[in-house]
Each structure stands twice: as structure tokens, then as C-alpha cells.
Amino acid sequence: MASNLAASFSLDKSKTSLLIDANLYNPCLDSLVIGDSEVGLTDYLSDQSTRIDIKDIVYATGIPRMRVIPIGGYSEAAAEYFSSRTMELFSEEVSRRYSDRYILLDAPPILEASETQILIDIADLVILVVPYGKVTNEQIAEAVEKIDQSKLVGIVYNN
After folding, report:
1. What does each of the 159 residues of the chain score in pLDDT, given as a tens digit?
2. Which of 75, 74, 72 is nearest to 41 (CA)?
3. Does 57 fall in a domain?
4. pTM of the full predicted structure?
5. What is the number of domains present in the chain?
6. Both ends of the chain: CA-CA distance in Å?
């Protein structure tokens, strides 16, 4: 869903899209990278020496005007990095540096991962993706309750 949305946004010739893989449990956006992705988001967040710059983790895709930041290889304690000052600074820098871009975060399911709540707090807007026929109405309601209503754009049924 996130990659399709990012690809759609990149069709706007005056804008670009940046898709960030923040799904520690099912990372899949590295397949969009042209060539090899040496470092990603978790590597950047865990780098205490600040040798990794944001530009080092942004990769081209096969879609014009669409870039991706893969999850990276350093997933040990990565969930804690999402609530770190480094993540806060990363989010601010990406927004400031790429003001002409739609920035999308691909996060794990809200009812299965505590990190998603942290990512929701960082995000400006949230789209809840619901796997069609695989969750109950009660689970959808519980997920919706966890999202600040001023951020919730809508629900998309998938699969």
C-alpha cells in the first residue's frame, strides 16, 4: 500500500516521494532499490559516530521522482531508536531537507507492534491499512482508537 501510494504521488511532476521502511517485522522496501542498499534507517539511527548522513540512506528506485530508505541491517534494539532523539532529529531533517517531497512511513500493524504508536506520533497524517477479511470490526475500532483523530486520514482495505 505504501509503495503504491508513494509511486502515485511521484507522478506529480512538481513533487517527489520518499518512502521510508520502518517495519522491523516485515521489511520489504529494499526490493525497490536500484542496486545494493548498503545502509538504511536502522543503521543511521544506531550510528553514534554520525558518519552516516541522510543522503547515504536515500536510494533511487525504478520509478522517476520516487526515493526509498530501506530498513537497514541493524535491527537489534531498533525499536528503541524510533523513540530516540536521533529519530526526532531525523524526522525534522527529512522534512526540512526534502520540502518538495511527500514522505511516507511504512510501519508494522498498529495492534501488533508498539513501535507503530511512536511512528504515529512522528507522522503528520495516518492511513490505516486493514487486511480485508482478516480482522474483526472490534480490532479495527481498537486500532482507530489508538490514532489521534486529527491525524487519521482514512482507512484502506487491502488484499
Report:
1. 999 999 999 998 888 999 999 998 888 888 889 888 889 999 999 887 768 899 999 999 999 999 999 998 866 666 788 888 889 999 999 988 877 889 999 999 999 998 999 999 999 999 999 999 999 999 999 999 999 999 999 999 998
2. 72
3. yes
4. 0.91
5. 1
6. 10
How far is it, in rounded angstroms, from Cα 134 to Cα 120? 22
Between β-strands 152-158 and 126-131, what pairing exists: parallel, antiparallel or unpaired? Answer: parallel
Match 482514512 to its residue by C-alpha cell.
154
Q: Which residue has the cell 506529480?
A: 12
Q: Could you identify the residue written with the cell 518538495?
A: 100
Helix or strand or coil: residue 30?
helix
Provide the CATH number for the domain around residue 12: 3.40.50.300
Provide the b/e sequence for 136-157 (b: ≥16 CB within 10 Å).
Answer: eeeeeeebeeebeeeebeeeee
